Every structure is written in structure tokens, then in C-alpha cells.
Amino acid sequence: MINYKQISVNSLQFLEFRQLYLASFPDSERRELNELQQLMMSQPRFHVEAAIGDDGFEGFVSWWDFDTFIYIEHLAVLPQLRGGGIGGAMVDYLAARGTDLLLEVDLPTTDIARRRIAFYQRHGLRLWSDVDYVQPPYAEGLPAVPMALMTSEQMSRSALEAAVIVLRHDVYHAC
Asked: Which residues contact 165 (CB under 8 A, 6 or more apart)?
């Protein structure tokens, strides 16, 4: 059974979270640690939760609560535990809140990207293959990254378009 615990910069799981965060995402797809820590301390819409199993920290999910949708910014599971249902349980945990989910994924140009997309599809998300999307840079000097968007099945195109405006403004500060 997995339990979820909010991670703060002072929590016991912060070091494990930081290590997995840095190992799991390239520089262009993650925040600088100082910015991430500041966000964790000051932004009430932003959450980082640890997945805690019988043997301790198993992974994390960072997400934003925007009332009409949840944006999953990052999700990662310890490499030795991948494929065991932890990531899916985290997606299902957020989906159970009853709000549309939205996330960015790598374009389906590699086997690993296609496997990730299939993973999210198994958990009820759909790929918007007809929507061009570029993730704004997390910081000055970093590139924008072409990505694809996935959402809950029921999310409409107009709701997606409105959500992308919110992401650009509130998550990336790229008005």
C-alpha cells in the first residue's frame, strides 16, 4: 500500500526527492533547485508529494491545483521500483480528486516516449496529437522544448486551450 506525504524543504524525504528529481529529468525539463525550493515554500497551488511504501520513499509527484484542472509537472519512481504500479497509483491518486488532469510528455519519437504515453493512456489519459505545444523554458538560457499534451479523456479542447494559458502564465511565467 502506498501512502502520500507532502514534501517540504525540511522534510526527511526532501533529499531523496531532490536526488530522484535531478536524476530523472534533463536540465531543460526541470527547475533550478533554488527556484524549486522557493516555490515549495511560497506557492500554495504547488504540491510535491512522496509516495511512501513499506520500505520508505518510492517516488514523487509534483503538481499544481488550478481548481478546474490539476497539472502534473513531474512524476518519478525510483529506478529499481519502476514497473511495479507505483507511478500508476500516483496518477490514479490525483485522478481520484475528480478534476481534469493535464501533463506534458515527450513527443512520441522514441520507444521510451511511446511507452510513457501508453502508460498514461492505460490510466485514462488521452494524447492530443493534433495540438502543437512547446514547453516554455524553465529559466533564461534554457531552450523551449517541443512536447505533447495529455489530459483526462473528458477534458474539452476549449478547456485545454484555457489550461495552456494558465500554464504559460502561472507555471512558466511566459506571458
From this structure: none
pLDDT tens across 51-78, in order?
A: 999 999 999 999 999 999 999 999 999 9
- What secondary structure letter does DSSP report for 169? I
Helix axes 33-42, 14-24, angle to 10 degrees: 130
Q: What is the CATH number of the domain that holds 56?
A: 3.40.630.30
Residue 16, classed as helix, strand or coil, is helix
Number of domains in the chain: 1
pTM attached to this predicted model: 0.96
The mean pLDDT value of the chain amounts to 96
pLDDT bin (cut points 50, 70, 90) of residue 1 is: confident
Strand blocks (E) in 22-111: 46-53, 56-65, 69-77, 100-106
Domain that holds residue 66: 3-171
Cell 531543460 -> residue: 28
Pick the closest to residue 20 from 100, 75, 72 (CA basis).
75
H or E segment and range at residue 9: none
Going by C-beta distance under 8 Å and a sequence separation of 6 or more, which residues neighbour residue 129?
A: 108, 148
All three cell numbers of 29, joined, read 525539463
Rounded mean pLDDT of 133-146?
93
Residue 111 CB partners (closer than 8 Å, separation 6+): none
